């Protein structure tokens, strides 16, 4: 039954399913990197890569939600993208301040 459905599904739909699954993988990777970083530090931390995986996965899921015309999914991912963008901005601003000597490198940009 699944094979018959797959054979009758248009190529463009299969491509969007691929985008959706890849997007979900990217979005899930953020939890894996956060878990590993926290285990290594023996405390809860949020590494920079968490925000980059959030941004990439969120943007891909947002595109997928637009394709699916799902307003709930679009709103959820769209709001997340604002938060991820802001955190990436803070990270980059902190790195720039450290490079300029106006911030301490031992204060994490993302905790």
UniProtKB/TrEMBL annotation:
* Example of a GO biological process term: lipid A biosynthetic process
- Keyword DNA damage recorded: no
Q: Which residues form a coiled coil?
A: none
Q: Where is the Lipid A biosynthesis N-terminal domain?
A: 19-90
Q: Membrane spanning segments where? A: 15-37, 49-67, 73-91
Q: Which organism is it from?
A: Hyphomicrobium album
- Keyword Transmembrane listed? The answer is yes
Listed under GO cellular component are: membrane
Which InterPro entries does this chain map to? Lipid_A_biosynth_N (IPR011499), UCP028440_lipidA_biosyn (IPR014546)
Question: What name has this protein been given in UniProt?
Answer: Lipid A biosynthesis
- Keywords, ordered alphabetically: Membrane, Transmembrane, Transmembrane helix
Residues spanning the signal sequence: none
- Mention one GO molecular function: lipid-A-disaccharide synthase activity
């Amino acid at each position: 039954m699944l094979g018959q459905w797959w054979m009758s599904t248009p190529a463009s739909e299969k491509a969007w399913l691929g985008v959706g699954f890849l997007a979900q993988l990217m979005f899930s990777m953020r939890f894996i990197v956060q878990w590993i970083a926290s285990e290594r530090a023996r405390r809860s931390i949020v590494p920079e890569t968490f925000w980059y995986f959030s941004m990439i996965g969120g943007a891909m899921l947002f595109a997928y939600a637009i394709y699916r015309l799902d307003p709930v999914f679009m709103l959820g991912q769209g709001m997340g993208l604002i938060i991820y963008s802001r955190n990436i901005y803070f990270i980059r601003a902190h790195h720039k301040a450290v490079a300029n000597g106006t911030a301490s490198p031992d204060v994490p940009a993302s905790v």
